[in-house]
Amino acid sequence: MADYNPMELMICVAARNLEDGATVVVGTGAPCAAAMLAQKTHSPNLTIMFEAGGVAPILPAMPISVGDSRTFHKAILASSMPDIMETCQRGMVDYTFLGGAQIDMYGNINSTMIGSDHAKPRVRFPGSGGANDLASLCWRTMMMTPQDNKRFTEKLDFITSPGYLTGGTSRYDAGLPVGTGPYRIITNMAIMGFDEESKRMKVLSINPGYARKDIQDNCGFELLWDDAITNTEPPSSQELRLLRDEVDPHRYIIGR
Amino acid sequence: MKLTAIKGNNVNLQSGSNELFSNPDPDTAREFFRSKSRAMVNKVTTAREAVKTLLNDGDYLAIGGFGANRIPTAILHEICRQGKKNLAFAGHTSTHDMQILVAGGCIDRLDAAYIIGLEARGLSPNARRAVESGSIKLTEWTNATLSWRIKAAAMGLSYVPARNLMGTDTFRYSASKEVLCPFTGKKLVAHPALYPDLAAIHVHECDIYGNARVFGASVSDQDLARASKRVILTAERIIHNDEIRRKPHETFIPFWCVDAVVEVPYGSYPGNMPYEYFSDEEYLKQWLTIEKDPDGFRKFFNEQIMETTDFNGYLGLNGGIDKMLKLRAIEHMIDKA
Prior knowledge:
Order of helices and strands of chain A: HEHEEEHEEEEEHEHEEEHEH
Strand content of chain A: 15-25%
Strand content of chain B: 15-25%
Helix content of chain A: 10-25%
Distance between the termini of chain A: 22 Å
Shape of chain A: globular
Shape of chain B: globular
Strand order of the largest sheet of chain A: 2-1-5-10-11-12-13-14
Largest sheet of chain A: 8 strands, mixed
Number of strands of chain B: 11
Oligomer: heterodimer
Helix content of chain B: 25-40%
Largest sheet of chain B: 8 strands, mixed
Number of helices of chain B: 13
Distance between the termini of chain B: 65 Å
């Protein structure tokens, strides 16, 4: 078995979820690496979009900003932010990736602040940016994140981006488009999905080197477990070669 | 024709609870635009003069571009040098632009979509301190929401409906309102139109009248130029009006939106200008590092911005034309990066 680090595993797992012919809005960093890897493996016709307007670039390297020149380098379209967001709102975007400081059992994400006073937060983060929009309007939202109890928390300080809100049908009752929502949470320890009825986070697959106890011990709420739980396939030597040699040769992301 | 009432009207509609910093009334905007000059006259001026005559303390300010990409740096510096105060600001993925304005103490109200962060580069310690201290009033939005608020204004409306924000604290701390669609009965969010007092937008080229071209991702700037009461364009270069008329399909912003034109080569420095020059990552990193020490940063900010007379002076402090040509080479060698 090839040697790899947790970031490399997460990127490979994320890439496997992006099927050929799909559309995905990505930010900088690991999501962009996952989309590039998917294109180089099983999804040559994956369309990558950036929220500032770049569509289907031939990415020469990792962008620093979701609006820098690289995000529309040799692209088929250098569009606008409203156009990308309206494409999501029309139902033409299959996947997006989000990050955040906190996530709860329904896949709601906080990237705004820690503390209880909005006017005077204990810690302020950048805020939604496009995260709430993409989580509201893309069909499937994924997250790649290290897993610990502080991040996987019972209650968020601030719901920046909607997951399944309070579970069940609450997301759609709130008015968000039916059929959208969190799809996969990919951590260093496991791959999670969501229970069809309750919409609670459910472990689907366990990563090499971890046990059920590790996963639950590093989660601040009670996880559900799939009946047919599997073992996560580690990165193949071909995935690792492409990731290291072609996607991120300077190790900007995988060197973290 | 049979008229019927929409069913399911017993829905509990929510409103965001935070302050709306601008007036969404389209008739107030029409009154302003009624008297805005439509003359196709020479609008070429200096950054100093443009900021002095077109921006007042307390105004609502919006900046074009995205983060550190295609930003009108010379105007941002001039706003600080002239000590403009109590501005409201559209934080629509604002990174280095917000970093400058916060350092200048210019902003006291903020429509926040993405603030204090510089994307993959990290967070601005100085902007973060300012926001965490509570000295800047914040209302929460998102990138799409601010785009659509600007679009609503560009359309001459008071709001635009959308399907984001619902069910979240981002909505709760916004100033949007839930409404029912009169056609489908479905719940939507009404985002109030945003008519900025002033927008400053950096473009690749424009003529002396303000007919402008932008190459690469346009972000929200076509709507922003139309939504704003007053517009300052800075341009990498001024081109002849014949060139505009030769390719009218390339005109990104028409002259009647524009109040002032300032030629500022390398005007997005230290940011990226598509097809022209890449961002100066070392310099942006220097800001993030030096901001950790408030005293050291004050000295740096004074030397870089407050005590320089104009944008050329600032470029001179930071490597001058040699540095600019290096950044140009990086942009053009992007395949090899």
